[in-house]
Amino acid sequence: MEFKEQYNIYLEKIEDKIKEQFKPTDILQKSVFEAMQYAICGGGKRIRPVMTIAAAEMCGGDADDAATVALAVECIHNYSLIHDDLPCMDNDDLRRGRPTCHKVYPESIALLAGDGLLNMAFEILSDKDIFRKTDTEALLEVARVLSKASGALGMIGGQTVDLESEARNDVTLDELIYLHERKTGALIRAAAVCGCICAKNGENNAEISNIIPVLDEFSAKLGLAFQIKDDILDVEGIEEVLGKPIGSDEESGKTTFVTLMGIDAAKEYLKKLTEEAKTAIGTLGEKARFFEELADYLLDRTY
Ligand code: GRG
Predict the structure, then answer these.
(1) Ligand 1 center from residue 228 Cα (angstroms)
(2) Of 39, 64, 172, 285, which residue has the fewest beta carbons closer than 10 angstroms?
(3) pTM value?
């Protein structure tokens, strides 16, 4: 099957799960649910949940269980985007071509919507009854990996270093890599690894434990490459396609891979990381072909 066709099949599974989870409600606190729904139903590439489902499929896991774990991953991603856009963080007005959550809902409700999505992720993962095959031990491992990746050692840690770096003009390349390995990379890695974990069934645990470090290495390289591409698109992207203003990094005086290395060197670094990621995952052979093609797809993305 063609890569894009496969990607769209995964995408449909995720969109179905999201629709099923975020039904309209008429309870007194419905505004927070509407804001959560506004954020998560607003499109997006769904790269992280796609990786979760693809990883589970590669490991022989149950497709519906994988889509449920993928839903939890996407809840966390969208919580981070709502919070990242808030005035106290990046103060952005546009995301995915639409007003950001706090531009549509009061800032307080947007903040709570982010909190609501984060909590919802772990409510989903701890509901044994909605999983067909994944056992409690595997779900506990998924919850641990995801919460650590999203927490102060992972995404929140990266965001902290990012915010504190804004006032500095002496950020080094090593520091920039450190912060993006956490802010952007940690959740991408966890998304893939959790797909493998939810495919564990006792008998295949040893085999999956051999696959995880390979997919993790691939995802770490891909996560960094993803951020470099983001920095390049902030300079060279097309506003209407990207769904947010171009040049926002320069305007806010942020250190990026482009400001530190120059655009040509950043492009070379992006290509190098993509090749390294493909080499790493290539060791798994034909079953990992989707991931190899994903690396190229992300290299060429325009939004
Ligand atoms: C607890 C206050 C508090 C904050 C949470 C906000 C935050 C910590 C972390 C920020 C995480 C973040 C926004 C990282 C940037 C990663 C990134 C490149 C996001 C864009 O991802 P895409 O391109 O988005 O996958 P789509 O729209 O396709 O889903």
Answers:
(1) 14
(2) 285
(3) 0.97
State whether the beta carbon of 184 lies less than 6 angstroms from ligand 1. Answer: yes
Residue spans of alpha helices (H) in the chain: 3-21, 30-40, 47-58, 63-85, 101-104, 107-125, 136-150, 155-165, 173-180, 186-197, 205-236, 239-242, 248-251, 257-261, 263-282, 289-299
Task: Please compute the mean of the pLDDT values over residues 259-284 and round it to a whole number.
Answer: 98
Alpha-carbon Rg for the chain, nearest whole angstrom, is: 19
Give the number of the atom of ligand 1 that is nearest the alpha carbon of residue 159. 9
The Cα 112–Cα 178 span in angstroms is 29
CA distances from 99 to 21, 73, 102 (A): 23, 23, 8
Query: Which pLDDT belongs to residue 138?
Result: 97
Q: How confident is the model at residue 250 (pLDDT cuts 50, 70, 90)?
A: confident
* pLDDT per residue as tens digits for the range 114-164: 999 999 999 999 999 999 999 999 999 999 999 999 999 999 999 999 999
